[in-house]
Amino acid sequence: MKILPVSFYQRENVFQIARELLGKVVVTKWNKVITSGRIVEVEAYNGVIDKASHAFGGRRTARNEVMYAEGGVAYVYLCYGIHHLFNVVTNAEEEPHAILIRALEPIKGIDEMLRRVGKEKSDHTLTRGPGNLSKALGIFTSHSGNSLQSKKLYIAEDRISFSKMEIIASPRIGVGYAGKDALLPYRFYIIGNPFVSGKPK
DNA sequence: GAGTAGATCCTCT
DNA sequence: GAGGATCTACTCA
Predict the structure, then answer these.
(1) Strand C contacted by A129 CB (< 7 A)
(2) What's the whole-number average pLDDT of chain A?
(3) In chain A, what is the straight-line distance between the N-terminal and C-terminal CA atoms, in Å?
(4) Antiparallel, parallel or unpaired: β A33-45 and A187-190
């Protein structure tokens, strides 16, 4: 497997990147323990013009400063005081685009993930939903700003790619406060995958 | 199966 | 001082 180069992230079309991230593999390696999973669901956040984005209207705070960095770094923040949400920053410096990783299909280190989450056995809830997958992979807000080129946290290319037929675009989840922008089809997922959040089939 | 309340704390106003 | 890019468990049917 090959680590995705920064040129993958540093492109203008965040939706294109989001689609291409489906099927890629997120890998974390903390203290020599590897956990990884294949991306099956993402959401795109389209910079300053997107009401659902933390960077809407050019808002810039200590928390979202990372979004203004050049593409290829992690943006992690705490939601509802409980959940760590893992995002990937894209595009150039000063263009605060980001892609939220919403669901993974576990590949390596499932035992370790179970231990982190406190479960006995593996099921489809292990890495379903952004809060759960961050916990399973051991990603915390302290990793915000980390480069995705590091050996500890990165996204890699796998042989597998999904065809357009298998990818569904739909409105994003949990962004009702964004008004009209909440209806935009900026969420992409693999059709029929049990790890995709929301209603099972 | 569907709907809802509660957890819980950092961040911005 | 309010609220959030969520999740789980519990209720009611």
Answers:
(1) yes
(2) 93
(3) 32
(4) antiparallel
Strand B reaches within 7 A of the A63 CB = yes
Q: List C-alpha distances in Å: A64 to A10, A67, A95, A145, A176.
A: 18, 5, 12, 10, 20
pLDDT at A199: 55
Q: Tell me which residue of A34, A173, A158, A41 sits closest to A101, measured CA to CA.
A: A41
Q: Give the pLDDT band of residue A35 (cuts 50, 70, 90).
A: very high
Give the nucleotide with minimal C1' distance to the Cα of A80.
C4
Evaluate whether A127 touches A136 at the Cβ level (below 8 Å): yes
Mean pLDDT on A45-71? 95
Mean pLDDT of A148-156: 96
Stated in angstroms, how far is A81 CA from C9 C1'?
18
What is the Cα–Cα distance from A2 to A25, expressed in whole angstroms? 10
Q: How far apart are the C-alpha atoms of A172 and A74, rounded to whole Å?
A: 20
Taking the CA of residue A67 and the C1' sugar atom of nucleotide C4, their distance in angstroms comes to 18
CA distance linking residue A201 with residue A38, whole number of Å: 20
Encode A26-54: b = buried (16+ Cβ within 10 Å), e = exposed.
Answer: bbbbeeeeebbbbbbbbbbbbbbebebbb
Helix (H) or strand (E) holding A28, with range, is strand A25-30
Nucleotide nearest to A126 (CA to C1'): C7
